[in-house]
Amino acid sequence: MENTTKIWSFVLAAYGNIGYLKYLYFIIMLVWYLSIFAANTVLIVIIYVDRRLHEPMYIFLCNLFVNEIAGSTSLYPLMLSQMLSDTHEVTLPWCFLQMCCIYICASVEFCSLAAMAYDRHVSICYPLRYNSIMNTGKVVMIVLVIWMYSIISFIFSFSFIISLKFCGNIIDKVFCDYHLVMKLACSISTLNNMSDLFFAFITMAIPFSLILVSYMKILAVCLHTSRETKQKAVTTCTPQIVSVSNLFVGCIFNFVDSRFDVAHVPDKIRIILSVYLLVCQPIVTPFMYGFNLPKIRESFQRFVVIRKKCFFNSAGVNSKTGNLSAELEK
Fold first, then answer.
1. Which of 1, 6, 232, 265 is most buried, by CB atoms within 10 Å?
2. Around Cβ 23, how many Cβ atoms within 10 Å?
3. Is residue 13 classed as helix, strand or coil in its secondary structure?
4. DSSP type of residue 6
5. Which residue pairs from 184-193 have beta carbons closer than 8 angstroms and sit at least 24 positions apart in sequence?
């Protein structure tokens, strides 16, 4: 018999009852989230203030860092609040909002990496035409298209779930998952059931194909170029290959956990694998793309030195006695 009771909230059952350990987990996840926020914000500021980094590749990187902050913020605040909750309930609007943010950010991630792969392809394969092909205006337009494409794609997919009536409210995950929410509906059509696969195809499969084509062309060119060009290709393309591989593995984990019976897998392992992408990718990106690149690393070092000089100069001006150590002790 169909449940006619109106469902107003879902229960994120994967949290379970962990007793006083929830305070330890809360502190660990809070520190992790703040680290993600700080690392990505520092790189955004560095790219913004250093005009030498106002180049297509670094504008794409800045967009990627913004997306890492947005994706993390879609998960961690709700996760932190749920860790301290006894009921682990989340209302439908908040659950839908989290799904919206997570899936849009996932789409932006893949599309951004596709755009960066195209940028590297132009840089390596057509170095003399690079500045005319990848100018600042075109890069800004590509970034806007990426966000609009991701938002419109999700809105289309989300239209299949927003009108559903739900007969269950138990989600066996630590966040709201599109497919698991869909399974709680009283009745769903084949089209409804395939909507998340459609979203995955247009936001992951298509960008991944573009990335693959770009790297195949880069590889073909590198086979017939100088050692210096090959070294440049390795330096700039390796972080993207690592990120794409990490995304691919994380998406497989999430897909398998949502669609197949994994009851034989220990709960802790299953939970870790389900959030692997949202936990690892935002902290891997700033170190893989940001601090690992020579120009950004040099700019960061200059930024730290300048800030230190400004601090000490300010301390010297504000000190009436001229005693810097005494001023710092206050």
1. 232
2. 12
3. helix
4. P
5. 184/7, 184/10, 185/161, 186/2, 186/3, 187/2, 188/164, 191/160, 192/160, 192/161, 192/164
Q: What pLDDT sits at residue 312?
A: 63
Q: Is the pLDDT of residue 261 over 70?
A: no
State the chain's maximal CA–CA distance in angstroms.
83
Question: CA–CA separation, 179 vs 193, rounded Å?
Answer: 8
The token pair at 184 is 């709680």
Tracing tokens 């790189």 back to the chain, one arrives at 43
Contact 109, 64 (CB under 8 A): yes
**Whole-angstrom distance, CA of residue 133 vs CA of residue 136:** 10
Query: How many CA atoms within 13 Å lie on the side-chain side of 234?
Result: 8
User: What sign for the dihedral angle of Cα 157, 280, 206, 121?
Assistant: positive
Burial class (CB in 10 A: 0-12, 13-18, 19+), 123: buried
CA distances from 141 to 66, 146, 180, 185, 211 (A): 16, 9, 35, 39, 19
Helix (H, G, I), strand (E, B) or coil at 66: helix
- Pair 158, 208: CB distance under 8 Å: no
Residue 320, pLDDT score = 42
Q: Which residues pair with 170 in a beta bridge?
A: 11
Specify the pLDDT at position 319.
43
Give the number of C-alpha atoms closer than 13 A to the C-alpha of residue 119, restricted to the C-beta side.
Answer: 24
Q: Which residues contact 74 (CB under 8 A, 6 or more apart)?
A: 98, 101, 102, 105
